[in-house]
UniProtKB/TrEMBL annotation:
InterPro entries for the chain: Ribonuclease/ribotoxin
Organism: Laccaria amethystina LaAM-08-1
Identification of the protein by name: Unplaced genomic scaffold K443scaffold_533, whole genome shotgun sequence
Segments of this protein annotated with the region Disordered: 71-143, 262-290
Amino acid composition bias (Basic and acidic residues), ranges on this chain: 268-279
Gene3D superfamilies recorded: Microbial ribonucleases (3.10.450.30)
Length: 290
């Protein structure tokens, strides 16, 4: 067994590659390299000629050498198509017998025509969305109109200094006239759809110790409407409110801004005046650091 043995194995392969087809053109093959390891332990070294010691080195070097094997990709593709056709036929037979096919349904095209039921459902959803937008636009328009009919609105540059609980400590919080105006608008906007029970009725009832009771807003007669005061845009959204509230009151021509009231945060829950209000007077002085 020597180098001539390897040549003998390669000759049939070369002959197969060069065999012409009926059309006169040689058949084309794509070569795929595969590895066939040679077990050296089972090799009969006595069969090697002592006069050709290099043959042993050739065999040992070729034990892991790749061997070219002709692979016809066209034949493989035909086999895959045949398996697909067989699978489709099998699913059709299962469906004819009343059984669900195992293979998944083919994906629908992006622009495939929708069923009548789907079109009806989508049309109803679109109609609901249009109605919500129209209702929201009408609600905003009504609030804008009511805000325009509110008199005595504060100057946007005025400030209201209120003591509130901030991080479990009582600190001074500064609100501006612009914050108060925004709270007035939100009070009109959420009148029929309260946000965390706001706006709600402000009674302006007399409060304080017996014999020395007074109204929170002395110049206001009757009931009004209160809404939490918050800093910045868009104002109060339903979170835990602070101590300050804006007060508006209906009039014959619209509403009137009556002022800003607040609770005293230094009074505990057990104190009789815990829920009492006091009027916050506006000023032009800003807090330090603001």
């Amino acid at each position: 067994m020597h180098i001539s043995f390897l040549i003998t194995l390669a000759l049939p392969l070369l002959a197969a590659l060069a065999r012409p087809l009926p059309g006169g053109q040689p058949e084309s093959f794509d070569l795929e390299l595969r590895t066939y390891p040679l077990d050296v332990d089972t090799l009969d070294l006595r069969s090697l000629s002592p006069r050709e010691p290099e043959d042993l080195e050739v065999l040992l070097e070729a034990r892991r050498a790749p061997v070219a094997v002709p692979v016809n990709k066209a034949a493989k593709q035909q086999d895959r198509k045949a398996k697909v056709r067989a699978n489709v036929q099998k699913n059709q037979e299962r469906k004819a017998k009343g059984r669900n096919p195992k293979s998944p349904k083919p994906p629908t095209m992006p622009h495939a025509p929708k069923t009548a039921k789907h079109q009806k459902t989508q049309a109803a959803a679109n109609q609901r969305q249009r109605e919500r937008k129209q209702a929201g636009a009408a609600k905003f328009a009504d609030a804008k109109k009511a805000y325009a009919a509110t008199s005595h609105l504060p100057n946007r540059k005025k400030v209201y200094n209120v003591n509130e609980h901030v991080n479990k400590k009582i600190q001074a919080v500064q609100y501006t006239g612009a914050d108060a105006r925004r709270a007035v608008f939100n009070s009109h906007l959420h009148k029929n759809n309260p946000v965390n029970f706001s706006p709600k009725v402000f009674g302006n009832r007399p409060q304080g110790p017996v014999g020395n009771k007074s109204k929170p807003i002395p110049y206001m007669n009757g009931k009004g409407q209160e809404f939490p005061l918050a800093k910045g845009h868009p104002g109060y959204k339903g979170e835990r409110p602070g101590a300050a509230r804006v007060i508006i009151q209906p009039t014959k021509t619209g509403h009137k801004f009556q002022g800003v009231v607040a609770h005293n945060p230094s009074l505990g829950k057990d104190h009789p005046g815990h829920n009492d209000h006091f009027l916050v007077k506006p000023s032009h002085k800003k807090l330090k650091g603001t």
